[in-house]
UniProtKB/TrEMBL annotation:
UniProt xrefs under Gene3D superfamilies: NADH Oxidase
A GO MF term: oxidoreductase activity
Organism of derivation: Dethiosulfovibrio peptidovorans DSM 11002
Signal peptide feature range: none
Residue ranges of domain Nitroreductase in the record: 9-71, 95-150
Name of the protein this chain belongs to: Nitroreductase
Keywords: Flavoprotein, FMN, Oxidoreductase
Amino acid sequence: MDMLKVMLSRRSVRTFDRDKPVESWKKDAVIAAATSAPSAKNLRPVRFLVLDDREILDDLGNVLSQGKPFKECDFAVAVCADLSDYPDGSLGWLEDCSAALENMLIEATSLDLASFWFGVYRRDPKEGQVRSVLEVPSHVEVQGIGVFGYGAESVPAREGVDSSVVRYGRWGDFKA
């Protein structure tokens, strides 16, 4: 697949075929995509918790109100930032985590895997529930979780540029 086709094909899928395991080499490729993401000032605070233990995934599925996909997916990756040595007040880690998550979703799509981005950071009560299940210390933030597996549903690809959200020049060029 060419890269634009992969990006247009990447869609959020929340229903997975639990009986079809993801090959280990595909998991490794998704994780490699995550760890290759850029980092603001190359500070590299991003850490990854690979969640492929059925008990942990089921615990997330049981505690979260939107937890059903965790009970069906083959694996997930919690994208976190260790802020213990990070500059106070800097938010570059959010961008670093976002780039890593998007890299994973795009790579998963290129491997014919389904995925979605489960937002965690500053989402109450999800944030506290995830932190508790994953036993995340206070100096670490959980930005989100990439959820992966073979899809049990199909979502059509996008077809190209949505011109309603694109303008050139200044903001004033956007019309209601």
